[in-house]
Amino acid sequence: MLKYKYLFLPYDEAEIGAIEGWLELMADRGFKLMRVCIGNLFKFEQTLNAKVRYCIHPHIGDTCYNIHGWIYVGALSRNFDVFIAEDNNDADKPDIDSACMEAALRKQILRHRDGGILFFWVAASWIIFSIRLILILGGFITFLIDYDVLLPIGMLVGIICALVFGSLHFSAYIKRKKRITLLMERKRQPVIKSHKLFKGCLIIIIIISLLVINVQRVTKDRLETIPLDEYTVKINLPLMDQISPGEWFAAETAQEKYSSDEIIDCFVTEESFYVAPTSLGIRQYGSIVQDVTDTYGKRFGYNVHYFEIRNEGLAICYEEELCRNLNSGEMTAIYVDGFDSASYFLNGEIEDIVLRSGNIVITAMYYGSGSLLDSVHHFSMAVPH
User: Fold this and answer.
1) What's the rounded mean pLDDT across residues 249-260?
2) I need a surface site. Which of 183, 218, 292, 334 has the fewest CB within 10 A?
3) Helix, strand or coil for residue 80?
4) Angle at 344 between CA 342 and CA 348, to 5 degrees
């Protein structure tokens, strides 16, 4: 049989009467309190004679440790201390000044208000963080695609739990403040229900949500890429040679001479297994290179992204979101064989297109001597038939 038993405090620290009753009930069962550990974990020792009395005294400094006939066991909180007396000890319970007890109880109750403010602040911080991410990424659908659905779920669950936890603290603060006289009467039943188990579950869920958010952010930062020639899905996206052969030759020449990954960058990523299980990106950039006569002399750039969205409805939302982000330029609705919808944007020298076929969305950006609009028909080969 175990000699020691560890139990968490089942009541709030302000419920001093209920705590004394719980300690005496444990003594009737043969368990004597030995020590109050960190986090309100109580250590009991099983004894044959556990007839003891308990007293919870307001914390008034080191002087309260020297109470005749009573032994200090530990601090219940910053505001109360726990004392024990053996049954054969005829020491009376110490007289406690009512003003001192009320002051300690008010300080203890005030911690509920501070706890409510803290968790409301946590919820507000997560809300601001979520809105900021959505704005930076250009919309909620883009946010889902970039970070997978686990991140917004983790944020949502964490925000709800923090709001509930904060509400419980404020509710306890208001109710116990009104019933402080009943608390001072040291009744063996709690004046206000503590919800200790429920609060513990909320804390665990909040911690799990925080871990999910951190894991998702780290996963995105460490996203691995797959070379184009290893891509298993047969996709034929137009390259720069179909936009302007001269620029494609210049990009290849510059890469051979300088081994610059910034000139040609082709990769495939699996960014989200829930919203966009396949995300294919092709980026090719070029610019003037000094003292190289066979390098194309005008700056150019080409950027293509291919998304397979979870369903057609979500793909339509994503297409609308992309078009809203590009609405600073001149928009033209165009027809491209194989696509349900196609939009062309011209903003200065930069050309953009947004194409959708079912749940497939393709975006392209180009600037240079060629014309993206004249070559848009090349994208028809990218749509599975």
Assistant:
1) 54
2) 218
3) strand
4) 170
